[in-house]
Amino acid sequence: MRTHHGRYYPLIKQLHLLTVFISISLFILRFYWLRSGSAALKRRWVRITPHVNYTVLLLSGVLLVLITHFYPFTPQGSWLTEKLLGVIIYIALGSVALSRRPRTSRTRWIAFLIALVALMTVIKLAVTKMPLLGIV
């Protein structure tokens, strides 16, 4: 049964998917620029856009939860619980990979690659809505 808010679901889902695509693209691009020593990292839009995108990503995700009634930390939303855990891991590792603090090249690469694995896991959870670990 669809609520009156359900009619916005396709639009919000598309917005969410767009922000996911932007997030992944910017993460890879910023890592490339960092590794290549590009001055592009200092551009204003490069510093601001990720924060704006992450805000829209979070808000659209919350709206999707409210519309679909898939809540994390419930049996029906255990896949969403795992997805949130994956997002937290991605954020932490992305922070290490892109940090301004001195890090070894090896540390940055490992963090970058595991962050991408976390992202792929999050995408798999979102697409299948099937938990991998069965945690609630």
Give a structural overview:
- The protein has 136 residues and is mainly α.
- The chain folds into 2 domains: 1-69; 70-136.
- The protein contains 4 helices and no strands.
- The protein has helices spanning 9-36, 44-68, 78-98, 105-128.
- α1 runs antiparallel to α2.
- The protein is globular, with a radius of gyration of 17 Å.
- The two termini are 25 Å apart.
- The mean pLDDT is 92.
Write out key terms for the chains shown.
2 domains; 136 residues; 72% helix; mainly alpha
Structure in a nutshell:
The chain is built from four helices and no strands. The chain has about 140 residues and is mainly α.
Provide the fold topology.
Elements: H1 9-36, H2 44-68, H3 78-98, H4 105-128
Helix pairs in contact: 1-2, 3-4
Cα gyration radius (Å):
17 Å
- Kindly state the percentage of residues in helix: over 70%
Q: Biggest β-sheet: count, sense, barrel?
A: none
Number of spatially distinct domains? 2
Low-confidence stretches: none
Estimate the mean pLDDT confidence.
Answer: 92
Main structural class: mainly alpha
In whole angstroms, how far apart are the ends? 25 Å
Strand portion: under 5%
Tally the helices.
Answer: 4
